[in-house]
């Protein structure tokens, strides 16, 4: 490592102000601090600092996503083999999924990080690690056969319009990964909805056997074909069609456990989202007038992107509410609205995305009222005294 | 007795190098200094120049805004240096000490029979008035104010903090005398806040004229700001004064003997100290003799105070006016290969993303490495876990950053001080310099109000 460190120290002056590559200063810094934690010491304020930093925080989220990534890749293979009526070993299934999904991940990271690096240099900041998470979330909420150029366009849109115009990581109002998905959903609906997009190979239709519909359980439920729903176990383990990372509730729960144990994901938001979903599910059960409203309320948690949204999307600390009380309200409303949109509005069965984006917009308002409450309490205390 | 107030939020950082309970007399230090930078919001005006002879209790400088408040020499000797920093701001007034100390005599009597004015005058002349500070703003108290209460935090909960009960255990009479002095300065209650986790020193429990409150919980339970917030929070327009046990002992001694005897006990702590102990010395002493031969090799950080709020000094620097602790820890100016990805069993973190939480009860050798770079705020809910007041810390910080005076006031700036945010700064994943932001806010607010 010493020789690597020596090499970095040798080339470093070229990237500093006045050096040959000063335009790449932020980029250099990003790679350098990726390899070596800086030797910077505290100068004012506390003399010691917590060992946790942004890189570590973000990497924990990525680790929490690994079960869904691996399962998602395997499931891509599984769905394809099912659709074509073939049999395959576990490794064959995973390999097929890997060669389909990996390019999407690469495109998302290259485009997103490229833009981030450019903006960091333009602003004279260090590169923020936020996109390490967004860059993997984007592929996981897309269907497997999405064209790569679309991934690139959507990522660019999400990073520039969703994040950088507001001032970059930490300043954005909407969740960048969902911004990318929403962009594709509305710009290229034929690639983002319907029954054919979720399974690799169905779009061009070759070799697909007749009995395989490709429809997601959520679409089946929305169409009222309750009898076509897979078993609860299948929906829980995730051997169903859907976006790459959203299908396995089990894998998502493993991720949730990692986030909650490390304290990096807000358990408050996750739990209140689930409660919100259960409450509206129950209400819909009570007033059920169609088959979709009749499906047991708890099964909504297994359908579509609800679990994924609750664990990985709603908990994005930047776009979520920031006050403890606000987080509960925010989460509850996400769960509530997600299922409500899903069931009541047949045009958007995937209500989770819209519910989270909507609540992202309202999160500052929720916080505002929570903080007003605190201010009033303080004023009242002063008056009682006087 | 009074009920125990439980502090739930906070963080104890357990470090190596707690001082062993042995009080040693420190070797005679050659140099002593009074540092204007120890005092918040003053503008020092010198009354001595290099070469002047002074006695213990002779004024060195005064505050332009409160000229009656004198800052006096802790020892007798000769002024040898006046160190200045940026824009010629005075950093240190250094005195070379005589072998035996001569004292200025102050005309005192039993504080019980003295008027408030007389007491104020003696305190101001002797150089002990600055031991009384006020909230809001943590500036030196103004004798024209009548504080609604005086708070004494009688224990320290910071990392490696000295045991204040132990330090004052033999000063029962002086402590009581000091309390008697304080009781002349306020119509309100004098709150003596002790730690409920162990039996308090008799110095405290036998004190008369105070209300004893018990606190339990992690740091910052010992911060006076937290205690005020829990007992009698500051509203707009309120002023409370606060001080600490050793200062009260000094005040008591002044009224006992009629001299400014600046003796105090300081704990020498930290992982790099070979045998951490308590030392009896005179306030403002150079730490040179204290640390030489008693520390490990390597590049070290010397801190007057604790690792969260103390000030960086050199290895022959001086003990701060208010500090009862010297901490020596290693500097952290090294590169660490993939440091952010290592499990981090030897590093301390409030978050469980660093896996040292798997080994409970560990004492850490912590250095000054920054562990990352500055970022925008991303994580939320971190500060709230270590900030036990009913205040939204991040929102208050943001109000300060945009200089929104109204919002700062509404969000509770009067109740807070830098030190209350030290843990927020420590845990911050975005490595924000929270304490200095709070100080900016307090200064801004003070300017606005005057």
Helical content of chain A (DSSP H or I, runs of 4+)? 55-70%
Based on the structure, what is the oligomeric state of the protein chains? Answer: heterodimer
SSE string of chain A: HHEHHHHHHHHHHHHHH
The number of domains of chain A: 1
Radius of gyration of chain A: 23 Å
First-last Cα distance of chain B: 41 Å
User: Which descriptor suits the 3D outline of chain B?
Assistant: globular
Q: Structural class from helices and strands of chain A?
A: mainly alpha
Largest sheet of chain A: none
Quote the distance from N terminus to C terminus of chain A: 66 Å
| Helical amount of chain B | 10-25%
State which percent range the strand residues of chain A make up.
under 5%
Helix/strand/pairing class of chain B, anyone?
Answer: alpha/beta
Model description:
The complex is a heterodimer of chains A (386) and B (450). Helix content of chain A is 63%, strand content 1%. Chain A is mostly helical and 386 residues long. Chain A has one domain. Helices cover 22% and strands 21% of the residues of chain B. In chain B, the strands form 4 sheets. In chain B, strands 1-13-12-11-14-10 form a 6-stranded mixed sheet, with helices on both faces. Chain B is globular and about 65 Å long. The two termini of chain B are 41 Å apart. The chains are: A mainly alpha (386), B alpha/beta (450). Chains A and B meet through strand 1, helix 3 and helix 16 of A and strand 20, helix 11 and helix 12 of B.
Identify the notable features of this structure and list them briefly.
heterodimer; A: 386 residues; mainly alpha; B: 450 residues; alpha/beta; six-stranded mixed β-sheet
């Amino acid at each position: 490592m010493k020789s690597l460190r020596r090499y970095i120290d040798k080339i470093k002056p070229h990237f500093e102000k006045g050096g040959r590559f000063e335009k790449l200063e932020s980029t250099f810094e990003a790679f350098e601090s990726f390899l070596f934690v800086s030797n910077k010491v505290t100068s004012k304020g506390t003399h010691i600092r917590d060992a946790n930093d942004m890189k570590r925080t973000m990497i924990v989220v990525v680790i929490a996503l690994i079960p869904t990534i691996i399962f998602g890749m395997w499931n891509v293979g599984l769905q394809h083999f099912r659709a074509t009526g073939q049999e395959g070993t576990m490794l064959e299934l995973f390999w097929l999924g890997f060669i389909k999904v990996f390019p999407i991940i690469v495109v998302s990271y290259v485009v997103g990080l490229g833009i981030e690096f450019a903006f960091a240099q333009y602003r004279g900041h260090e590169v923020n690690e936020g996109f390490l998470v967004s860059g993997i979330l984007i592929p996981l909420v897309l269907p497997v056969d999405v064209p790569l150029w679309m991934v690139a366009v959507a990522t660019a849109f999400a990073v520039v319009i969703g994040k950088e115009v507001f001032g970059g990581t930490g300043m954005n109002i909407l969740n960048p990964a969902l911004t990318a998905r929403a962009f594709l959903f509305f710009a290229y609906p034929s690639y983002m909805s319907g029954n054919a997009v979720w399974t690799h190979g169905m779009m061009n239709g070759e070799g697909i056997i007749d009995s395989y519909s490709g429809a997601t359980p959520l679409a089946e439920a929305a169409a009222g074909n309750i009898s076509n729903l897979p078993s609860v176990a299948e929906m829980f383990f995730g051997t169903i069609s859907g976006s790459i990372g959203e299908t396995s509730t089990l894998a998502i729960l493993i991720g949730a456990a990692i986030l909650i144990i490390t304290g990096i994901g807000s358990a408050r938001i996750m739990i209140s989202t689930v409660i919100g979903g259960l409450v509206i599910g129950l209400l819909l059960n009570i007033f059920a007038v169609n088959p979709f409203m009749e499906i047991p309320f708890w099964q909504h948690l297994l359908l579509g992107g609800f679990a994924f949204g609750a664990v990985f999307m709603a908990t994005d600390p930047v776009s979520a509410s920031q006050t403890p009380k606000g987080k509960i309200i925010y989460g509850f409303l996400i769960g509530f609205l997600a299922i409500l949109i899903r069931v009541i509005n047949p045009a958007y069965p995937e209500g989770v995305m819209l519910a989270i984006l909507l609540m992202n917009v309202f999160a500052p308002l929720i916080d505002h009222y929570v903080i007003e409450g605190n201010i009033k309490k303080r004023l009242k205390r002063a008056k009682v005294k006087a | 007795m009074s009920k125990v107030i439980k502090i739930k939020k906070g963080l104890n950082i357990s470090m190596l190098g707690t001082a062993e309970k042995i009080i040693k007399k420190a070797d005679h230090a050659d140099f002593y200094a009074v540092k204007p930078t120890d005092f918040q919001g003053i503008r020092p005006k010198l009354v001595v120049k290099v070469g002047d002879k002074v006695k213990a209790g002779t004024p060195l400088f005064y505050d332009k805004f409160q000229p009656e408040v004198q800052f006096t020499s802790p020892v007798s000797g000769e002024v040898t240096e006046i160190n200045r920093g940026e824009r010629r701001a005075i950093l240190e007034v250094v005195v070379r000490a005589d072998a035996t100390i001569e004292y200025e005599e102050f005309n005192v009597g039993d504080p019980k029979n003295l008027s408030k004015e007389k007491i104020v005058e003696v305190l101001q002349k002797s150089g002990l008035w600055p031991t009384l500070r006020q909230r809001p703003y943590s500036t030196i108290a103004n004798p024209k104010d009548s504080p609604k209460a005086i708070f004494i935090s009688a224990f320290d909960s910071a990392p490696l903090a000295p045991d204040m009960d132990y330090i004052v255990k033999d000063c029962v009479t002086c402590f009581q005398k000091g309390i008697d002095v304080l009781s002349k300065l306020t119509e309100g209650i004098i709150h003596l806040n002790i730690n409920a986790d162990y039996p308090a020193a008799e110095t405290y429990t036998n004190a008369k004229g105070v209300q004893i409150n018990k606190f339990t919980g992690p740091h910052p339970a010992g911060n006076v700001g937290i205690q005020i917030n829990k007992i009698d929070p500051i509203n707009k327009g309120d002023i409370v004064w606060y001080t600490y046990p050793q200062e009260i002992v000094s005040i008591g001694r002044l009224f006992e003997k009629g001299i400014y005897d600046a003796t105090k006990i300081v704990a020498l702590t930290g992982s790099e100290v070979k045998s951490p102990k308590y030392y009896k010395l005179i306030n403002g002493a150079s730490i040179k003799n204290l640390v030489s031969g008693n520390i490990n090799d390597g590049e070290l950080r010397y801190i007057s105070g604790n690792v969260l709020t103390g000030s960086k000094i050199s290895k022959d620097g001086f003990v701060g006016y208010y500090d009862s602790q010297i901490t020596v820890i290693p500097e952290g100016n090294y590169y660490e290969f993939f440091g952010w990805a290592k499990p981090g069993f030897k590093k301390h973190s409030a978050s469980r993303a660093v896996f040292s939480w798997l080994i409970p009860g560990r004492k850490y050798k912590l250095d000054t490495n920054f562990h990352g770079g500055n970022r925008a705020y991303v994580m939320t809910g971190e500060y709230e876990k270590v900030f036990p007041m009913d205040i939204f810390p991040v929102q208050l910080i943001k109000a300060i950053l945009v200089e929104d005076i109204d919002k700062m006031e509404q969000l509770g700036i009067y109740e807070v001080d830098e030190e209350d945010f030290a843990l927020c700064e420590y845990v911050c994943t975005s490595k924000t310099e929270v304490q200095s932001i709070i100080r900016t806010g307090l200064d801004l607010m003070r300017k606005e109000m005057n």
